[in-house]
Amino acid sequence: MQIQVVKSKIHRVKVTGADLNYIGSITIDEALLEASNIIEGEKVSIVNINNGERFDTYAIKGEKNSGIITLNGPAARKVQKDDIIIIISYATLEFEEAKTFKPWIIFPNENDNSLT
Q: Is the separation of the CB atoms in 85 and 3 below 8 Å?
């Protein structure tokens, strides 16, 4: 049997922009992608702390160490600049493997989205 478990989590980052006219996705600072083991194109779930919205999109790489977190396309309607969100990705694992799996969870600085 296989189950889905949390693979990666970027806990509480500040939205720096919302671009309705972009194709779609979420732009994430490359340093945050690397630290959380999320790759470009990977499906991610977004949880908006400010308004309770939950939705899925995919990650695209933003400038490294820029702190950028921008929701693009239709997702831009679900956030506002300065909202606090959680970004989560999942993996499908065999049940026994899932029992010992350790996810990549990071806690960036909420003020500037940095890792320090």
A: no
